[in-house]
Specification:
Strand content: 15-25%
Shape: globular
Number of strands: 13
Structural class: alpha/beta
Number of domains: 2
Number of helices: 9
Radius of gyration: 20 Å
Strand order of the largest sheet: 9-13-10-11-12
Order of helices and strands: EHEHEHHEHEHEEHEEHEEEEH
CATH topology of the largest domain: Rossmann fold
CATH class of the largest domain: Alpha Beta
Helix content: 25-40%
Distance between the termini: 48 Å
């Protein structure tokens, strides 16, 4: 396990080592955030693990701080030559504090700034909704609805004291193209509506994720307890599109290429399966910001309807614009 501790004193590493792993199995990266100053150290550490302990482990779990933006870490596995041929990114799991997360999903933001809490939810393949015993059933249902509106792809697991099955965090397959397609993930997200929240205070680390002025990304945060009822219009949302008929591959490449070139910073995740004209196979794709990959999958079954589906997760998405661009790719 690789533990990223933002600060000079390693508390989490000691806790993890004492409960789950022996000390030598926990590798510490401190005094920096994985998405910023110590990414080079992460690459070196993973490369060293592969060289010295190949065959002795099945998974490497990287636990980041609450300050981390997952996107640069994800991109590292696609861009670093030392990792491309030796490691496969399995998935992103985000732990959500059901009691306090509403403090970090506020509408008030500096122009162009989205809090890491939103980015961590948006980029997740699985969400572990923790502290569910500290909120009411109505609050829990409202929060789940809101999380699905932000990220309509990620599966949500409820938990208390972080207790989940190991299968929730390992073997995710979030970046395995052969497992991208899941009809459940293409269900349209629920419409935004008012939610009721209980009052509470976030931990120091959670507060730092949105307020630390020294952190390079910049953050915004509304202080004080949340009002009893808040109408949310989160900057980050999901758009799910479904379209019957064959698509022109060149048109798809042009559309997505232009879209990512102009909006790559706002386009957090993209997943889909396409019916391409003259292709007997399904074409599956996914992307993170400006990184995008696609490949042919299994053949379309005899009699199976050739339907294209794509999900976008990002900031300030224009559903009408995306729908029009998708339709323009039809043969």
């Amino acid at each position: 396990m690789i533990e990223n501790e933002f600060g000079a004193v390693d508390v989490d590493g000691d806790l993890v080592a004492s409960r789950t792993f022996v000390a030598e199995d926990v590798l510490l990266l401190n005094n920096g955030c994985l998405c910023c100053s110590v990414r080079g150290d992460l690459v070196k550490m993973l490369a060293q693990l592969v060289r010295t302990k190949r065959g002795l482990f099945d998974h490497v779990v990287i636990e980041t701080t609450g300050l981390a933006n997952p996107a640069p870490i994800i991109q590292t596995f696609y861009l670093e030559p030392d990792l491309v041929d030796t490691c496969r990114l399995d998935g992103v799991v985000t732990l959500v504090d059901a009691k306090h997360v509403h403090l970090h999903l506020q509408d008030a933001r500096a122009p162009g700034v989205v809090c890491e809490a939103l980015e961590q939810v948006a980029l997740a393949d699985r969400l572990v909704l923790n502290k569910t015993d500290l909120v009411t059933p109505a609050e829990l249902a409202a929060l789940e609805s809101r999380l699905r509106a932000i990220n309509g792809v990620a599966a949500i697991t409820r938990a208390q004291r972080g207790a989940v099955d190991v299968g929730t965090v390992l073997g995710v397959g979030g970046f395995d193209l052969s497992r991208v397609v899941d009809d459940a993930m293409f269900a349209p997200p629920p419409e935004a509506h008012s939610h009721a929240h209980s009052h509470g205070h976030a931990s120091a680390e959670e507060e730092a994720a949105c307020t630390d002025p020294s952190h390079d990304h910049g953050h915004g945060h509304s202080h004080g307890a949340a009002p009893a009822v808040v109408h949310h219009t989160d900057a980050v949302s999901s758009v799910s599109l479904v379209q019957d008929g064959d698509l022109d591959l060149d048109a798809v490449n042009d559309w997505l290429g232009d879209l990512l070139q102009e909006r790559w910073q706002d386009m957090y995740r993209m997943k889909g399966v396409l019916a391409i004209a003259e292709f007997p196979e399904r074409y599956v794709l996914q992307g993170v910001h400006s990184l995008f990959e696609g490949q042919v999958d299994r053949d379309w079954a005899p009699g199976e309807k050739r339907t294209s589906k794509i999900v976008f997760i990002g900031k300030g998405l224009d559903e009408a614009e995306l729908r029009e661009g998708f339709a323009s790719c039809l043969v």
